[in-house]
């Protein structure tokens, strides 16, 4: 295997006597002649190239270690096609994120090809996928088959710069980004592989800007957020005690004093408070920084909640109601801070409404269950925006997102009642089932005597009063109930008109609804 | 069983929705039908010929369940009777309604039958006699509304069964029946 030194010398036409080693600042490799202080050549990536026997220019790669003889030359192409592990998606074809993973960009119409031979082969079992760039992975989603594949960013050794050639052929060709990825022994693209291969992202989507994508891609690769998650998991720290990467620089400079006795504890408290304060300040200075600090903020909120819990249980009980109120608020707030990676116009561009629509479909599942299968659009608007945090959506966006559901196969739908109230409900929700419940409720003795008000129905059915009223009105229009307007307001009774025989108004059949009603009403008098 | 005077009220009179105008078409039709029949039955029983919407009509409220018909509801039910030919609005403002629990034609037949059964042909009776006289006591004619009676008599006159003429005094008219 050729070494850097010999390759470089051959490339640059240098004569012998040179040797290879790390440069003085340790960040690049250099060739030296004689001792270290004489002239040397700094070797950068672009310097290293090799001409293969077929005449193609093959790049050589400096591995991050830069240690002597850590150079790995380009491997001959794999005879088998590299495989991508499958990625999991939700029922609305949105990727399922791991903890700490944030979506950064969306690109439609992407194909993935291997670069092995002169004829490229497809690496994905589907064409024209939706590429989701996250802080941790590249996810390729095929909406038609509701399946996806992924490449972990940690498996990417190198991303080639975009070619900017001016040939006519390149103007009409789809933009391409080539990546070197590491491959394990069984051919799967994974981080701990021993071999490598080059794959090409082909951007066939219309109106896509390859430079914007490439810029975001490089940014994400540089920030290496997957390592943060890994180290946080390893250490089990909360990230606020001074071990997060952004705060570590500051804490390294802090003079550490011995932590002894009460003063030590107090000092530790003080330090914790100061670091929290600084963290808060950093977070709020820049909204982008806030996005990346979102996870820290949630953890901070969790700590506060824990504190609330402990102080609540310690108190004498006099202010218990207030504590419970704020505890409940905190818990609700924490529950609602559920979306760490919102779909924004920035990340999704032209796909904004589509992806928003899908994210909404995923989000709305839990509130729907809590609310009993149906929830008003106004409530969804509040909940969804609260969960998104800073990237709020407008009411029009919400309406459009709901309207798009007709086009996809999602398990929810939007429905408009005659009175104009719009709700979101599960596709599996059955009106008839609700009517059956209302009908049996209306035939209970109390309801026969006094009827049902919307709040009674809401209480018994376990749904919001506005929705209960809608259901009662629907039941009325179906002929199940009749309305009664009086000083007490609007109430509904089971429809007895159908039971009354016009020819025989004074007689009541035994065992009928009319009989049951009469029994219930005469007893009370 | 509840009563309103001598009149027996049906059980559904205590059903609160009966007193609220129903918005759903099918339910409304049924409700209207029941009210039409009830109004006619009640008026026949109580010999009521005119319902004034500006006054309280005992049938239109039920104090036991604390419900009464709204003005709109009353108009709807009475208008339905008018459409059926069993009632007539007496004014343009729809404030007074004449209830024909017996149609004018039926009244005419009834009068003729009464005259025949009592052998009153070729005799002369005053209109007032017919309304409150001795002969008609106990019959439906007792207490009949004057306007209704006149129309029935006029109908008979058209058919040649009676002749109406002005009496001696300026007050009353007389009728002579022929067989």
UniProtKB/TrEMBL annotation, chain A:
GO terms for biological process: protein transport to vacuole involved in ubiquitin-dependent protein catabolic process via the multivesicular body sorting pathway. Keywords: Coiled coil, Cytoplasm, Endosome, Protein transport, Transport. Gene3D superfamilies: 6.10.140.260, Pleckstrin-homology domain (PH domain)/Phosphotyrosine-binding domain (PTB), Winged helix-like DNA-binding domain superfamily/Winged helix DNA-binding domain. It comes from the Eukaryota. One of its GO terms (cellular component) is ESCRT II complex. Pfam families: EAP30 (PF04157), Vps36_ESCRT-II (PF11605). It is found in: Cytoplasm; Endosome. Residues 87-233 form the GLUE N-terminal domain. InterPro entries: GLUE_dom (IPR021648), PH-like_dom_sf (IPR011993), Snf8/Vps36 (IPR040608), Vps36 (IPR037855), WH-like_DNA-bd_sf (IPR036388), WH_DNA-bd_sf (IPR036390). The keyword Transport applies. One of its GO terms (molecular function) is phosphatidylinositol-3-phosphate binding. Component of the ESCRT-II complex (endosomal sorting complex required for transport II), which is required for multivesicular body (MVB) formation and sorting of endosomal cargo proteins into MVBs. Component of the endosomal sorting complex required for transport II (ESCRT-II). Belongs to the VPS36 family. This is Vacuolar protein-sorting-associated protein 36. It comes from Rhynchospora tenuis.
TrEMBL record, chain B:
Belongs to the VPS25 family. Keywords: Protein transport, Transport. InterPro entries: ESCRT-II_cplx_Vps25-sub (IPR008570), ESCRT-II_cplx_Vps25-sub_N (IPR014041), WH-like_DNA-bd_sf (IPR036388), WH_DNA-bd_sf (IPR036390). GO terms for cellular component: ESCRT II complex. GO terms for biological process: macroautophagy; protein transport to vacuole involved in ubiquitin-dependent protein catabolic process via the multivesicular body sorting pathway. Signal peptide: none annotated. Pfam families: ESCRT-II. It comes from the Eukaryota. This is ESCRT-II complex subunit VPS25. It comes from Rhynchospora tenuis. One of its GO terms (molecular function) is structural molecule activity.
